[in-house]
Amino acid sequence: MILQAINVFKQLRPDDFKMLAVMERGMRHYEFVPVDKLSVLSGLASKDVDYLLDRLSKFKLIVRRTTGYVGYRLLPAGYDALALRALVERSVLEAFGNPLGIGKEADIYDALMPDGTKVAVKFNRLGRTSFTRVKKLRPYAPSCSWVYASRSAAKREFDALQRLHPHVSVPKPIAIDRHVVVMGLIDGVELANVAGITEPGIVLEDVIENVKRAYQLGIVHADLSEHNIVVKPSGEVLIIDWPQWVPTSHRNAKELLGRDVENVLKYFRRKFKLKWGLPQTLEYVTG
Ligand SMILES: Nc1ncnc2c1ncn2[C@@H]1O[C@H](COP(=O)(O)OP(=O)(O)OP(=O)(O)O)[C@@H](O)[C@H]1O
Ligand SMILES: [Mg+2]
User: Superfamily assignment of 189-286 in CATH?
Assistant: First the structure.
């Protein structure tokens, strides 16, 4: 399944992006931006506004309010389109590729930079599920909650990658726009899906070493597991998925670090019969 924004991106024209941007601004104040407001903000005649709103609705980038006054709001796909457009204009992205991972909290695609470098593009999708739930209960739910939740997840992850790279083995941070993070593409497989490892002890040591280096830089991952560790064909590991990191000064940092390390040790105990003790490993990480 390819992202709707990628599907329609080539058909979008400057006026379409202008209308999407106007809607983004309007959504700071409105649940659904009233059509007359869109006309004022865009400086376009109302028949041109109607034409654009119709196009963007057909492209499934915006949605119309079904009751009360006539208004529209961006769908996540419209927000994706704005971010992609900005990244193209900034010469970060040139061509979009295929899905690498589609999940509850993020969709990840590969893409090309103008110089041919392959990158991973992570579209954060926070607040998506809770939004639908809220919407069913109350028609006037704060429509922007997913925008802010997804944006701040991107910001937090990019911030962590910038602090950690290259001292800790993480994807290289390349760019951020809105809820989208562009980072180095890893050729590798999630630890959970690696069929067999010849030297599991070395891999585990590598993971713990990286956890220690992150800790020394003041960062605890806080969602570490075999799903957020990628193993390269060379056997080298990378730790991914950092939006929920906490600083080591956080009051729950020790507890979260304990859970991170325990998850990893449990996995290696179950899968590879490696029996590392939790207290000693934690002492090594924090020592
Ligand atoms: N830089 C990258 N290079 C290659 N693949 C990546 C990269 N980042 C993430 N992936 C792939 O996408 C998957 C999901 O990424 P990540 O863990 O960052 O997001 P998530 O929030 O956990 O999403 P999900 O809800 O799908 O688990 C990873 O398990 C990995 O397979
Ligand atoms: Mg993950």
Answer: Transferase(Phosphotransferase) domain 1 (1.10.510.10)
Q: Which ligand is nearest to the CA of 193?
A: 1
Nearest of 179, 177, 122, 175 to residue 145 by alpha carbon: 179
pLDDT in tens, the chain (287 residues): 789 999 999 999 999 999 999 999 998 888 899 999 999 999 999 999 999 999 999 999 999 998 888 999 999 999 999 999 999 999 999 999 999 988 778 999 999 999 999 999 999 998 754 444 444 443 333 556 788 889 999 999 999 999 999 999 999 999 999 999 999 999 999 999 998 899 999 999 999 999 999 999 999 999 999 999 999 999 999 999 999 999 999 999 999 999 999 999 999 999 999 999 999 999 999 99
Dist. CA 229–CA 235, nearest whole Å: 12
Ligand nearest to the CA of 191: 1
Ligand 1 centroid to residue 190 C-alpha, Å? 9
Query: Residues with catalytic annotation?
Result: 223
Sorted by where each begins, the domain ranges of the chain are: 4-184, 189-286
Which residue's CA is the closest to the ligand 1 atom numbered 25? 103
Atom of ligand 1 nearest to the CA of 240: 18
Is the model's pTM score more than 0.85?
yes
Nearest atom, ligand 1, residue 185 CA: 3
Domain pair 4-184 / 189-286, same fold: no
Residues 6+ apart with CB under 8 A from 151: 124, 178, 179
The CATH number given to 4-184 is 3.30.200.20
Transcribe 23-68 into DSSP letters. Answer: HHHHTTT-SSEEHHHHHHHHT--HHHHHHHHHHHHHTTSEEE--SS
Q: Does 106 sit in the ligand 1 pocket, CB within 6 Å? A: yes
